[in-house]
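Section 3.1 - Work completed
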Amino acid sequence: MKNKFSANDPASVWSGMKQLTNYRTPTPNPVGNQQLADDLNVFYCRFERPNLTPHTHSDLHFTQTPTPPATPLLPPPATQPALKICEDDVSRVFRKQKTRKASGPDGVSPACLRSCANQLTPIFTQIFNRSLEQCEVPCCFKCSIIIPVPKKPKITGLNDYRPVALTSVVMNSFERLVLAHLKNITGPFLDPLQFAYRANRSEDDAVNI
């Protein structure tokens, strides 16, 4: 345990503590309530409703002075090298997948990407590069599943459930590859005195921002 603490590996520390204390995670009891699922769906989507406030006559004839375009901070796109993902980078990201994480709505699990990295790397490399060429992300990569996780043992209202979105593991890998390219471009433009976010933020957290 001392070596695990010194290595700053909290996952191994927690695993060792569970072995020492013989801790067993209690099996959750799923609630088969269709009405609860419908209520949560309406509760989570309450901000996506269209604005029902009618437009007034003055709103329809309101004109605003056009704002001049901002001066770009980066050179023109023609001078920027085109982003092209290579198979070695895709294979590296696939092999670093954490097998205990859940899969997204497409059913592709991290364990599958890690175990079949040699077979899947060429296929997904073509898909990623094609997506970059067309500037379009496949619809199957943008879907997510919302899992309501209780915030506390006793549920008293819908707000006691925390919505957790399970996204595509393939899309997360794609985002990490693009993130590495963006860091190389935006690095010189970052203010060293900027402190709103931690500079040593992990790669997973940076992807989720």
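Second construct:
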Amino acid sequence: MIQGVESEVEGIIHYCRVHDMVLDLIRGLAGEENFITISNEDGGTSSRHKVRRIAHQNRILLGQFHPYGDMDMTQLRSLVAHGCDIRGLVLHPSFKLLRVLALERCTSPDTQEYGRRWLEHLGKLVHLRYLGLRHTDVEELPEAIGALKLLQTLDLEGIGGDGMQVQLPSSVSLLTRLVCVRCDPYTKVPDGFLQKVTSLEELQIRVDMLSFESKRQFLKVLGNQSLLRVLRVIGMGRLEESVQEELLKSLGNLQELEHLHLHVFKYGETSPASTEWDKAVLPEHLRRLCICCI
């Protein structure tokens, strides 16, 4: 009844799907039990009770003044928007109990006017565990993100759109309970990122935009992530000898690592990645090793 959909390239299951008839049944039962409220393209909703979870699909959102009617949103725990045209604030100050915020493939007719205001009240969501902004036109994250002390997942895959470089604020280094971090290849992380984090199980990050010392320090700290199971490092390129040593030493410390993906950018045919893999001692639990040269 439930089928996993895996990537043809990586062979990893990224999401699951069900038959349309089963989906209709699930949606019907979810509405009857007030498990989730669905707000679709026709502007309608499937519930008028106290709302704990709401999903917006393929519609225009007018921000905090969106007509929720007589629905009580003060107990909202989960807010999901997929393929929506956002024209204002996404978050309302009353969403204080929110634990999941997922915006995927959301756009705006005027990113400069609306995009910077989407997450205006983000710092007040102190109970937030999951923040996903996949393929969403967010130009920057507010400095107040550092107040989300309970945040466990930060998914920024495809953030900004069209190859726009997004600089993460320095306050993300305060998110010490992160378990999963997925950064877009065009996302630039601040110095000291993850220095205080020891609970990571999945990490995707680009390092070639870091300075030499920041890159060396990052790869050194990487070895402290003893719980790490999935690691994707983008933009290795030609590594200085001292940086190579830090990388190999850190990889040897990641005893729980199961998936290792290294994306190497070759800056010209004469400068391939020169990491001495014959000296590497890889974790015994490693199930998949992928080294891609681009």
